[in-house]
């Protein structure tokens, strides 16, 4: 600095010597009180140095010594001898040193001179630089350290010229000018257009930079900035600039969705990582996770080297991205399970998806063709808290599928989570229908509910005779009275009653008289003496039920009146029907009505009447109608019994 100042003074002294030799009026110059040189002297030397693009240090020293870059002749001074004689005051003569510097000097020199310029000087010079499209000069003028600034309109015009550089070799220069113009308060049509469309044009031009003031201006005017086009253009630097500012969830979601489609897996990883690092998490990354898993399980991945990178991306989405595992019913997990990708499934389930999402994935595991893979996948899902209904349905499907789809070891795995009582024990239907007694025993060992036992018992009863005895034998120790009673009812109502099983059920505790003796009445109606005999052995005496059963028999008309059905009558009377004299007497009348006057049936009539009279039948019942019938038909044998 001392050297430059010395050089500046040397030039000033040299200039003064020349002036003294050339002018007799050198004494008219007013001297600077600080340096001993007038600003006119300094300005002249400065102008000479500017014209020759002199050393920056010397020019800076001249500015320090008192050069006036705005006026060649300051206001209030008279110019020349005539001016001094007439005392005419001048408005001052403007200096063009800054203008000359913009066309001749380096940017550093321009900045040094511009730092001392006033607004008027700056405006004129700035406009001239715009007209010349001198972008270097514009940048230098905008980057000076002084207070003077061009008008908003001039800044707007300069911004328009700088936009032309975007996408070209001097793009960085244009970016800097745009940045400075906006920061200095540019206002006008070019500025408005830039704020509205500048970001899009920057993206379209494949530029990697955009002035942050544009982004800030866009942010203030709009709620969001679309990142999708930036991601699509693979402009990482521009993306970084945009992400410095807050982004909406919608914008981030769209950007991540676009990023995951990038073919280059490494670039894709970097873009997604950036977006997640700036807030694209949870719901923003849910769809991205699905897309990535779908790509990873596809037969033809997008890139041969994608596996390792995609695995890292998967882990990043799950951890830092906190992707919603339950998005669309856990679609990502479903895709991985369906494809049999244990590595992906393990990554997802270890992050604890919901029980419902695990439940939606389980049916896909059950459909895997390879048995070993199926068992492994099902086991992997069941290690976590899974929807009980889904596991119950899977158990039913496994048993229903037969040995091919439901081997015992798979069923045992399912039973670690599934309940055999799902849907009232639906699984027992298929175990019994398919005669899978080993599976049935496994199911029974799990503990059965009241309703489940009803399901199992009913299904067992409609099996073949030999099969149901075996199955019923397996169930018998679990059945309660209600189950036994319903089973007894089913057996008795069958066309060909299984007497052996009826006896077993009664011995196990079934009540022959339950439901107002429906089993007894049904056996009596069908005149099934064998079934009735077994029932009466376990029911004891019941006046009401057996009297009703006898009425049921009588309502069949003549069918019961035969030697074949004598035992039925005896059983009913012995177990309680005899107590109802009216019913017994009605039976007597029925016998006489159908047999009186038929000598060939006299033995049958005698046998039946003896039984009925022993039970207390009254000949005078219904005004002695039995006697009248015997008289009308002239049946002396019957009449003698009645009288």
UniProtKB/TrEMBL annotation:
Taxonomic superkingdom: Eukaryota
Against InterPro entries, the record matches this protein to: Ankyrin_rpt-contain_sf, Cul2-RING_E3_ligase_SR
Name this polypeptide is given? Uncharacterized protein
Q: Which organism is it from?
A: Rhypophila decipiens
């Amino acid at each position: 600095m001392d050297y430059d100042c010395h050089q500046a003074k040397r030039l000033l002294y040299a200039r003064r010597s020349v002036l003294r030799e050339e002018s007799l009026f050198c004494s008219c110059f007013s001297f600077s009180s600080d340096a001993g040189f007038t600003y006119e002297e300094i300005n002249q030397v400065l102008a000479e140095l500017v014209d020759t693009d002199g050393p920056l240090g010397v020019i800076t020293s001249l500015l320090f010594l008192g050069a006036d870059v705005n006026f060649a002749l300051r206001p209030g001074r008279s110019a020349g001898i005539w001016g001094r004689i007439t005392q005419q005051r001048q408005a001052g003569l403007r200096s063009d040193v800054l203008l000359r510097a913009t066309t001749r000097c380096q940017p550093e020199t321009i900045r040094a001179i511009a730092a001392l310029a006033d607004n008027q000087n700056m405006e004129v010079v700035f406009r001239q630089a715009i007209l010349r499209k001198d972008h270097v000069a514009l940048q230098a003028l905008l980057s000076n350290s002084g207070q003077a600034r061009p008008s908003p309109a001039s800044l707007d015009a300069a911004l328009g010229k700088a936009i032309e550089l975007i996408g070209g070799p001097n793009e960085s220069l244009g970016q800097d000018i745009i940045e400075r113009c906006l920061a200095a308060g540019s206002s006008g049509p070019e500025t408005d257009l830039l704020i509205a469309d500048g970001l899009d044009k920057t993206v379209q031009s494949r530029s990697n930079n955009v002035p942050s003031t544009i982004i800030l201006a866009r942010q203030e005017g709009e709620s969001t900035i679309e990142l999708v086009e930036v991601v699509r253009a693979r402009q990482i630097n521009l993306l970084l600039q945009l992400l410095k500012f807050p982004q909406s969830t919608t914008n981030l979601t769209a950007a991540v969705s676009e990023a995951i489609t990038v073919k280059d897996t490494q670039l894709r990883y970097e873009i997604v990582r950036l977006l997640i690092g700036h807030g694209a998490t949870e719901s923003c990354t849910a769809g991205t996770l699905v897309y990535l898993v779908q790509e990873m399980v596809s037969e033809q991945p997008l890139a041969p080297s994608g596996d390792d990178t995609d695995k890292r991306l998967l882990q990043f989405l799950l951890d830092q991205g906190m992707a919603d595992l339950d998005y669309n019913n856990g679609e990502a997990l479903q895709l991985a399970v369906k494809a049999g990708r244990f590595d992906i499934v393990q990554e997802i389930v270890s992050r604890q998806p919901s029980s419902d999402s695990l439940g939606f994935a389980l049916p896909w595991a059950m459909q895997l063709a390879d048995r070993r893979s199926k068992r492994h996948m099902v086991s992997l899902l069941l290690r976590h808290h899974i929807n009980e209904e889904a596991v119950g349905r899977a158990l039913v499907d496994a048993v229903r599928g037969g040995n091919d789809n439901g081997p015992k070891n798979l069923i045992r795995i399912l039973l670690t989570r599934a309940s055999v009582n799902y849907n009232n024990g639906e699984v027992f239907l298929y175990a019994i229908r398919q005669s899978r007694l080993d599976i049935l025993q496994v199911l029974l060992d799990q503990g059965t509910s009241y309703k489940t036992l009803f399901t199992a018992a009913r299904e067992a009863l409609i099996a073949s005779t030999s099969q149901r005895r075996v199955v019923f034998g397996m169930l018998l120790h679990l059945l309660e009275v209600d189950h036994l009673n319903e089973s007894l009812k089913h057996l008795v109502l069958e066309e060909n009653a299984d007497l052996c099983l009826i006896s077993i059920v009664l011995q196990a505790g079934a009540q022959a008289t339950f439901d107002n003796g429906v089993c007894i009445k049904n056996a009596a109606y069908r005149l099934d003496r064998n079934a009735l005999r077994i029932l009466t052995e376990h029911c004891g005496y019941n006046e009401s039920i057996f009297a009703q059963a006898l009425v049921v028999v009588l309502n069949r008309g003549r069918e019961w009146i035969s030697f074949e059905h004598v035992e039925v009558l005896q059983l009913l009377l012995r177990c309680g029907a005899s107590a109802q004299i009216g019913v017994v007497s009605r039976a007597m009348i029925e016998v006489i009505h159908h047999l009186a006057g038929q000598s060939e049936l006299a033995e049958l009539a005698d046998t039946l009447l003896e039984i009925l009279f022993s039970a207390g039948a009254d000949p005078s019942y219904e005004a002695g109608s039995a006697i009248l019938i015997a008289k009308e038909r002239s049946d002396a044998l019957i009449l003698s019994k009645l009288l």
